[in-house]
Every structure is written in C-alpha cells, then in structure tokens.
Amino acid sequence: MNQSEQRVFSGVQPTGNLHLGNYLGAIVKFVELQETHNCIYCVVDLHAITVPQKPEELRSSIREVAAAFIGAGVDPCKHIVFNQSQVAEHAELGWVLNCVARIGWLNRMTQFKEKAGKDRENASVGLYTYPTLMAADILLYKATHVPVGDDQKQHLELARDVAQKFNNDFAQSIAALGYGEVFFPQPEPLIQGPATRVMSLRDGAKKMSKSDPSDYSRINLTDTPEAIAQKVRKAKTDPEPLPSEVDGLSGRAEADNLVGIYAALSGSTKPDVLRDFGGSTFSRFKEALVQLAVARLTPVSSEMRRLQADPGYLDQVLRDGASRARAIAAENMVAVKDVVGFLR
Ligand code: AQP
Residue 325 is part of a domain; what is its CATH number? Predict the structure, then answer.
C-alpha cells in the first residue's frame, strides 16, 4: 500500500487544559503526517462525556481542540477535522464492537483502572467501554495509522484485537460479500520520538495530564510566555548537572523529561541535546528551554486565540469536516451492517 492510500486517524478529547503532552505526543505528529497521508483528525466529544462535563464548557473545549489542530498547522481543507458526535456512525459501530470485544479484554485496561480509581462502582459504563468506542473511531474509516502518545498504546492493541476478531468471527460473511479476507485493516500505532510520554513538571513519575489539579504540572497551549517561563523555572529537578550521555539520565526522571521535551521541541534527539548541554546546570538549561518553548508555542497559542475569537468559523470547519467524514463512515457502516446480517 503506498502512503497516499494509507489513512491516518487520531483524536483528542475536548476536556480542557490542552497541554504540551497533547501537543508533542499527538498534535505535532498530526501536522507532519498530513504531508504524506490522508488524515482524519477528530475532536472526540463522545469520549469526553465518559466523565461529567458542563455543556457550555464542553462546547468551548470542542472549539479549543479544533483551534489547536488548525493553530498548530493542520489544514482542514486538505484533511478532515470534525467532532465525533456529528457522525452518528461512531456510536453505531461502537455498539457492534461492544458485542465483539470481550469483558476480559476491557478488564485489563489500565486507563480505566486509573481513571475510575477506588470508586469503580460509580464510574460511568461509558468510561469502561471507552476503548471499544476508540476502536470504532479508527476502524470506521479503516484507518491504517494512528499517531498517539504512549498512554494510548494499550487501547491501540485492543483496537487491533477487535479488528482481528471481527474479521475472524464474520470471515464467511466477509468472503461471501466479496470483501476478501480482511475487512478491517490492523491499525498501526505511531508512537515515536523523544516525547511520547511527557511527564508532569512537578513529579517525573506522573504523566502530564489535563486533569492534574496543579496548573504548575503542565504547560498549557494557551499559556502566556511569562507563565511558560515561570513553570519551566519552577519545574522539579535534582541538584546534579546534566549528564553528557543518555545513560546518565536513568533514575533521573525529571531531568529525562526536560531533556525529552527540549529534544522534541527542537526536532532533535536526547543525545543531541546532551551533547550541547552535558555538564550544564539546570538553571542554564532551563533558560534555553524557556526560550525554545516560548518560540515554538507562542505562534500556536496566538493563532488559537485568533481562531477561538471566531466560533462561527470553527463551527463551520467542524460541520464541513463532519459531512466529509460522514460520507466515508456511512459507506463503511453499510458494509458492516451487511457483514453482520442486519436488514436495511
Ligand atoms: N503526557 C502526555 N505525553 C504525550 N502524549 C500525551 N497525550 C496525552 N497526554 C500525553 C496524547 O494526547 C492525545 C490526546 O489525549 P486525550 O485528550 O484524548 O486523552 P488523555 O490521554 O486522557 O489526555 P490527558 O491530558 O492525560 O487527560 P486526562 O487528564 O483527562 O487523563 C493522545 O494521543 C494521548 O496519547
């Protein structure tokens, strides 16, 4: 399959506080991939309501994610940008795949365990079945590649298992209808680069996350240069200077994280960064990181602000994207219904 036949799909939840982890782990890759692939980028609002959301804030967060995609450089004319709830086939295929996935598979999902916490009985059913809806998001478009952060690796593996089981369970029907042996392709996760798991600036053992109560744990995409500088300067580190080799970062999670962030923002690698900064104090390194982060993020945040000031434009982009997404989704869903044996 050549690259133009490969289809990229990925999504970001509109749950507020978009941060540097979302940017480096996902959105930067979205921008790169649009040069070589057909891409579909989705604001996954159905996923967002697996935990409570205030309707007015949800509407604004949906626009914020769309603005982040476009502000970072995604071209919504050449590629598809839309919000998930406008294409009903996501929920429809999600149901079919709920009936393909096994409870035992979902029981192993670590993100559910982390997000549900101790009060598991009180978590929504949607939070539990989140991974099958995510499988539906990807398979609905027969996507071949999925750029995500490292935290989504397990969900991607489940999507691959679901695709395989659907292909096996309905093999006869798929063949009889002339779809060959493989109905759903196996989606490949794209989890690459020095910042696939950006950690909290306050605790190198915790992922940088939208829901962290401390705003100092993350750099938000909407932060001012002053806020970025303050957060980087206050980021937790250790007393030793930076090592000259990557091996020297082991057991130094906070140092490792800042070096990874620098490498990703500068388009280089951790060894390159340590070649330049090995032996430096953190205060010198942090000043360089502030300059780099401000230079990279300020154009994105000012473009996001400009776009968010025009909600009518963003809504139109999402509506237009949804109608193009729906055309693909509807055709594939008709085929799924035929394969499963529904009348239409
Ligand atoms: N810390 C991270 N480092 C690298 N990539 C990350 N992603 C999220 N956090 C990091 C990637 O960003 C994309 C969108 O994530 P999401 O919004 O769909 O969901 P999430 O992983 O649940 O994001 P958060 O920020 O961690 O939110 P909460 O606090 O609600 O759990 C995905 O590709 C994800 O891998």
Answer: 3.40.50.620
The pTM of this model reads 0.96
Let me know whether 151 and 40 are in one domain: yes
Domain interval for residue 183: 3-196+310-340
Q: Report pLDDT digits (tens) over 273-312.
A: 999 999 999 999 999 999 999 999 999 999 999 999 999 9
Q: What pLDDT sits at residue 4?
A: 58
Dihedral over alpha carbons 176, 179, 182, 185 (to 10 degrees): -150
- Residue 211 Cα: closest atom of ligand 1: 29
Report whether 242 contacts 277 (CB < 8 A): yes
142: annotated active-site residue:
no
* Annotated catalytic residue within 142, 153, 206, 210: 210
Cβ contacts of 215 within 8 Å, gap of 6 or more: none
CA 21 to ligand 1 centroid distance, Å? 7
Q: How many domains does the chain have?
A: 2
Which amino acid makes up residue 133? L
Closest atom of ligand 1 relative to the 198 alpha carbon: 3
Q: What is the pLDDT of residues 49-107, one digit of tens each?
A: 999 999 999 999 999 999 999 999 999 999 999 999 999 999 999 999 999 999 999 99
Q: What is the CATH number of the domain that holds 281?
A: 1.10.240.10
Q: Is 236 in the pocket of ligand 1 (CB under 6 A)?
A: no
CB of 155 shorter than 6 A to ligand 1 = no
CB burial readout 45-65, b (16+ within 10 A) else e? bbbbbbbebeeeebeebbbbb
Statement: residue 1 has pLDDT above 80: no
- 153 in active site: no
**54 belongs to the catalytic site:** no
Take atom 35 of ligand 1 and give the residue whose Cα is closest: 149
Quick check: 19 pLDDT over 70?
A: yes
Q: Ligand 1 in contact with 208 (CB < 6 A)?
A: yes
Residues 191 and 219 in one domain: no
276 & 142 share domain = no
